[in-house]
Structure formats: structure tokens, C-alpha cells
Amino acid sequence: MPNSSSSEVAEFFQTWTSVEYLALLFEANDSYVGKQIVLDMAKYDNIMVKRVLKTEETLMKKFAVEVVPSLYILFRNGSAMQLARGGKTRFDFRLALKKLPDLDKSRLHQEHHLLHPSVPTLEKTTVARIPSKANVNR
User: Fold this and answer.
1) Side-chain-side CA neighbours of residue 87 (13 Å)
2) Is 135 inside a domain boundary?
3) Count of structural domains, the chain
4) What is the pLDDT of residue 96?
5) What sequence ranges are listed for the domain Sulfhydryl oxidase Trx-like (predicted)?
6) Residue 123 lies in a domain
7) CA distance 56 to 63
8) Are the CB atoms for 50 and 6 separated by under 8 Å?
9) Interval 12-35: pLDDT, tens
10) Angle at 64 between CA 23 and CA 32, to 5 degrees
11) Are the beta carbons of 112 and 55 closer than 8 angstroms?
């Protein structure tokens, strides 16, 4: 999974026009929290989560990150803010992200359900009877 660079963050909203939020999760190289959050939030279409390793000094300085892991959110209008800091689990960061306004579920998942609706349940279930050995030998 690629990590974010300073140039990628600077050009993000020009490339991803349908995304409203860019979440940057700053963490240590051996941490898996960022990878987990990327997967957890993949079902939402107006946010993208990027993992930023603490070795990415340019971004660490730009956002004045003092503690890892830390979660920052960038808005389309250019503003940014820290959402969470020093969380121990993915749930801490996921909860902070889910509080963002207008965090919609992915249109891709909605389209999938339209194309593949769930099968209606049957009112009456028919069970086939398998003959026992005693009935087969007759």
C-alpha cells in the first residue's frame, strides 16, 4: 500500500474531484492502524484515507505532528484540522472519521444492490426427504 508524499497531498483534490475529505493518518513504520483505517473507510465515496509514515518529514512538519499515530483531515476548501491524536486502536480513529458531516456510503455499493437485489424469502420451504437405507432395500 503506497504511502502519501507531500506532492501527492498538495495535488489530491485536483485529481480526486468527487472526494470531499482527505484523511491523513500519521504513524510509525511498523503500525497497521493506517492500513486498517484505509480498508474500514473504503466503503465511503467522499473520503479517502492516506497513511503517512513518520519518516515523511515534510508532511510531519507541515501539520506540526508531535505524536503518532495522529489523524488529520483536509477539506476541499484548503483548511485542515487534527481529529484524533495518540489513539491506540483503529476504532478510535474510525469513530473520529465517522463523525464527519455528510459521510455518505459509496455509490458503488448502492449500485451493486440495485443491480443485484436480494433474493426474496420464500414463504413456504419445501424439504426433500432422503430415503433411508431401510426404504431403499425394499
Assistant:
1) 24
2) no
3) 1
4) 92
5) 4-101
6) no
7) 11
8) no
9) 988 888 899 999 999 999 999 999
10) 45
11) no
